[in-house]
Every structure is written in structure tokens, then in C-alpha cells.
Amino acid sequence: MNNNLPTYREATTADIPQMMEVRFAVKENVLSNPALVTPADCEEYINQRGKGWVCEVGKEIVGFAIADLQENSIWALFVHPDYAEQGIGKALHKIVLDWYFAQTISTIWLSTSPATRAERFYIQQGWRAGGDIFVAQRFKSSKAPAGRHLDSA
Prior knowledge:
By secondary structure, the chain is an alpha+beta fold. The chain contains 4 helices and 7 strands.
């Protein structure tokens, strides 16, 4: 088995320190104040408000996504810059939306900074801009199979 291929699984509380490292490593959508997103926030979102998933390469978490059922949103979807453009974001996107729409038929939303790679990514995945947020009705999120290595599209 090749330990360099990405694998995907549900996030646990023990993953939060590495998830935070990924969150703080991004070059776009940088938090103006990192104290605004705490480990306790992550724990609440993955254990009470919704569910999260991580992507690991070897034993290192290189990406994660969290859906919030209470606010019908994608609370987080981040990939470490060293692992960008490898299909990890697409796979996490598919996993999180497949789970979300298995739970509810409610429209889902997210926000991201304008004129960024993230904005282009979401548009390519079928999201529609609605002012300063993006919205998505139930749709086939991507052709990316979960749990397999993906080449960038």
C-alpha cells in the first residue's frame, strides 16, 4: 500500500490540532484574527453542529471539511497549500455535500473571499454567487470518488 496517496475519514477531536495547522497555513481566506476560530469551535462543529472529514497523506492531515447542519453551511473546507491542485479539495467537497444532502434537502451556503482560487473552485463545482455568499441546491457535487487519489481536473 502506498502511504503517499490521500485517504479520507471522519474527523475526530484528536484531529483538531492538525486541522488548525492546515487552517493557519492557507495563503487565501486568511483569518484576520486567528483567535476568532478556536479548537473549541472546531470541536463543537464536528461533534454537535454537523460533521467533519479529514484528508491524510501518510499520518499527516493535509485538508479538512466541516458541514454545519444548524446553519446549513459549509463551515470550513481547507487544503494545505503544499497539497493544492491535487484533487483533495474536490474529494472533500464531494464527501461533505454527499453527507449534508443525505441529512437534509435544505439549501446550503458558504462564504469565501472574492477573486480567490477558492471562489473559482466553488463556481467550478456548481455553486452560485448570491451577493457575498455562495449557495447550492442539491446537486451532484463532483465526479470525484471519495477515498481515492485524484488528479487535478
